[in-house]
Amino acid sequence: MSVRFKGTELRPVLLEAVVNQCRVVLVKDQGVYFLAERGERRPDGCQKLIAYAVGCNPDVNAFDDWWELARAEFGGDDFGEFFDPHDGVFALILHNANDLDVSATPTHLSLQAVASTPNGN
Predict the structure, then answer these.
(1) pLDDT tens-digit readout, 60-86
(2) What does the alpha-carbon distance between residue 31 and residue 21 come to, in Å, rounded to a whole number?
(3) Phi-psi map region of 5: left, alpha, beta (phi>0 left; psi -120 to 50 alpha)
(4) Which of 32, 44, 74, 106 is the most buried if burial means most Cβ atoms within 10 Å?
(5) Which residues contact 43 (CB under 8 A, 6 or more apart)?
């Protein structure tokens, strides 16, 4: 099993991290998402650019649905994992029309660029 991040939503976050010379963060708390470590803020103080995993956006998906998908893939604990936006897999997202699949074991995260699909699944 894995969760998918649409390249069209992830690319702006990666670009923001490159421009700000910072890392990107994979977060599991209220959903599963990537954001730039130092990103632009909205007037309410929240991060402006956030790329949610398909099915794990609490603003779009029902609580029980996104919570169960996030728990099934990443376990019950919240976390933040930092990545260099220049790493190879992110370059494939930045420079091609790819999506990103993220899967987890109890000790490892796996990130894989995959061909984009129209519905993102």
Answers:
(1) 999 999 999 999 999 989 999 999 999
(2) 25
(3) beta
(4) 32
(5) none
